Predict the structure.
Amino acid sequence: MAYSFRGGIHPGTHADPGYKSATNTKPIEKLALPDEVILPVSMHIGAPAKPIVSVGDTVDLGQPIAEAGGFVSAPVHATVSGKVKAIEPRLHPNGSKVLSIVIENDGEDRKHESVHPYDFASMSNEVQFEFTEEPPMIVLSDWSDHKLDLPEIIMDPYNDEAFCATFGKENLEKLSRLLRATTIDDPVIDMEMEATVGDELRWFHVLARALWSGPSDPVYLGSIGKLVDIDDRQAELIDLQFKAYHDPLTEVVNGAFARKVIAERLGSGEACDRHRDRHVLALCDLDFFKQANDTYGHQFGDRVLKHFAERLQESVRGEDVVARVGGDEFLLCMECPVDPRPLIDRIHRSLEGDFEGFPLSVSMGVAIAGSDVRDYDELFRRADVALYHKKRGGRSGYVFYSDLDEEERDLLLEGAHTALSGIDRDESDQ
């Protein structure tokens, strides 16, 4: 037999697209299953498989229908569900007739009990994709419906409602911009993005390679790549970050993180209006807290601290900083462009009271950041000095550093008195 072509069929290239004119505007569709399938028992090297079904048997998709027939052999499985119509020699692609199992397809695609349809998908967190610019189309790996609740083929994805709802218009536009900004020599982009799968937001790592036409005047053709589900890893990272920045008992931020945030908010230079952007930093100390531990035990003391932290957070705005900076010492930082005294008075009154029979008495030292001070360490030192003054003068209440006269400030500083270093020791003696 003579053939009119050599080496197969070549339907053209991007440089010579003429052969594609009949199909290049047509959507890709899945091929319908045939009414009848013919499965040769010899489709591998070695010994033919041995049929283990009979004519008239009903079989399911994936069911073994022939077992390995020798040392070098392989079993055969049903590719559709239906009834075994015949077991007889049929024409084989090698040109001869080979014993084959003929199945009449019932169109139900019932899966055999041994088949786990998403088993392979569960082994991987990846979804591969291929995107073409003309026609605009994205093809996803065949387990995309499991990972993303999306079909395998999506025409005009940027205008597809389900596709855009999954990844978000902004994310898709960003991804497109990054890919189009690549070059032939550097075509790979690497990013992370959120996707809505069902009703759940999940994090994905996107690794994609832009496809360009030839080196001369290159044209963007599309991209290939993969989406890797990293939500579990992202959750672990968020958890680690939370633990690094927060006090493990009260779950308010720790002193180190508070220092970083407050220092940034205080700012410096021209970006900060030193006369208008005023912040208030208050140090709060539970009076005679040691008695809670000594009288009721440390577990009760922990509950007192957690209760106090909750009260402190409830008394301020969400953007204000609340931190634990010592055993029973807490820090509060707020932006307050007006007179802060009514605010501090309200907060102090909200903190005092009773917790399971233990009286909550609170002393506070307050310092105001303004035109004369924008440094965190200096602001903290002033609040600490004011707190010490209050504790030594009769606890329960608050003192502003600005209310101390210069002589009082100098005496406290010369004696290196600080609330956080000395008060608990003093209270233990009472």
Q: What stands out?
A: The chain has twelve helices and 21 strands.
